[in-house]
């Protein structure tokens, strides 16, 4: 045994030394949110602004931008007779396919005359995973796989399939969505330029065949039919102060369709347009009905180029010069809005067909208000003629799957197995009482056997294998999305994390945070496994717990960390993501301790080293993810069982590794990690002191040993009662079955039906009370003005005169006040399912959790309502 201990200690020292000396393997995050030249999107000499030579070795001269979408030509060193070597393109000139962050990866691409990729350089990305988790060198290595491959090849992320002529690319573990999006960018950009220069055959689309009715439509009918669409850009979308007026508002629609052309232009106007159109040409109109910005752009003034609007259809882009524009003298459709700028554009390309979907893009610069950095972006509105306006309806098109769809399809079996595991864990835990009744304090294997399997799967399959460790950054992203803009694709892009969060949300409200944190969290399971293994190899005598008074102080640190990250995220999500390195998850599972700088590796090593001696130190004292899940755990429906004798018996508290049982035998479900040791003792007739005492008494008196009832006591022998089994000391003590003493709101006593629903709404929305007025009249009066101010703030937000940041400030201030006012009057929260009137006295953390979660949901509902009203307007 001594030799084994020495070997273990030696191994630990070697591990710590290796982590300390681990080199920093990832490159500096030079491309993360890099500031690009503001004129990059429009400058004719693109290669004067970006390093084109880096993606086309051997080229010394580059042309100005040409073609549509734009590209530049690369030439050799022979200045006497320049020889064309190939082409260089900027990905955002061609496609704005978003990656995991929701923003495109700006990529410079070199391609020779045969269509082979010769160079790839990422100029800018917004992928936090490439800043804090996966090194940027991994993306460089991924891009290097394109070199020598042809744009004509069928290239996909994953394994090669020679029988289908598919060339596979090795993905980046943990960044599948990013690389799938990058593959779409590479192939779309290369194909678009290759078709222009003749490497690939041009796109051929069947021309539209219109279904003509001869009916003249009003403007409202055109809008309802979808043949006239709106493109609206709000000021805050381009980094300006939010206001009631849009940055720009455009309406546009097809003019080649006879019904639409006559409705918009009138009979004479449409006939005149037809005389000016050649075969294969297509016309559409744009009018500006709002905003001070012109859609013509500065390029129109300089060289007759409309550089702010563009039509995109598939991989093809169409821009316009003054020769492609006709004057629009008026809209004949009844009810048309007034406008201050108008034009008819002509698309002179046989590649365009009105039968297929297309989109109008407004191009512009966005200013980051936090940093002042300018970035080129586009705002798109899709357009597709309704099926009723086309003979035979809309054609069938095969659009490529979105990146998140491809991820789900490529890993369908693993995802299904993971879903089965999560369901199995939930079901087994819901039936935990059956397992705990089969266990005793000396034989916990009926429970621990299943729990240890969960730990092993969490660490090796979920953590190191699928790299599906949930993180506080996902909570912050969810928080922002819930308040501002919910995007399903963002959350669906990582199927394991998506399913894991469904499991977490459901189980937190059913049982509390303990099922995830105690059974399924990869890092938490790793800590627990280290603690258990250390005990097995003889280090038990060195293992200890912090004194309860220090534990009760330090457990609040994780809440402080969580709230700090939440506040920082409201000002800068990027900074919050950097500060989220307080989580060791990325270093442990996503990147690996040997691939990170030594401070990160040392941090992980320190936590795991302390885990040898203290059970789950990170979970109990630092983890912001645990804190974010602990708050809604206040309202879990089903808690662990307690009996009256638990207020005087300390057996469970002594053995609680999470130190979640207080001196009165109450369980703090925000801290409980659901090891179920207390539940095992709850029905153990030899381990639970009150049960053991009663068992011995019955054996001595020759009485029947009845089974243990649901209340944790022996089923009574007639005519005895359960009360006879409760000790006199315990009977006089507090009831440990609830985390705090029961409360009974007098105004809700006996209410039912509609009156109960009404009182529920009043309880949640009206924090004032008579008791509070008596104890803190000044505080109550101050709240009236604050409530009025907060209500005005919401109205101003609805009118567009107040920014989202300002309303969050007001809402946060109101929430703080509501906590104070409820603590002075309505100091109670529900315990258990919401439909039961089971109340208890609220502690400060209870009230913070209740008010914070309630107001988050109300705020999200108000933002959604405001957005809907603005959208309808």
Automatic annotation (TrEMBL):
Where does the UniProt annotation place the signal sequence? 1-27
Keywords linked to the UniProt accession: Cell membrane, Iron, Iron-sulfur, Membrane, Metal-binding, Signal, Transmembrane, Transmembrane helix
Look up and give the organism this protein is from: Acidovorax benzenivorans
- The FMN-binding domain, residue ranges: 99-193
The protein's matches in Pfam families, at most eight in alphabetical order, are given as: Fer4_5, FMN_bind
Answer yes or no on keyword Manganese.
Answer: no
Record's PROSITE patterns?
4FE4S_FER_1 (PS00198)
Q: What is this protein called?
A: 4Fe-4S binding protein
Q: Which residues cross the membrane?
A: 412-431, 452-476, 496-516, 556-576, 596-614, 802-823, 844-866
Q: Tell me where in or outside the cell this protein is found.
A: Cell membrane
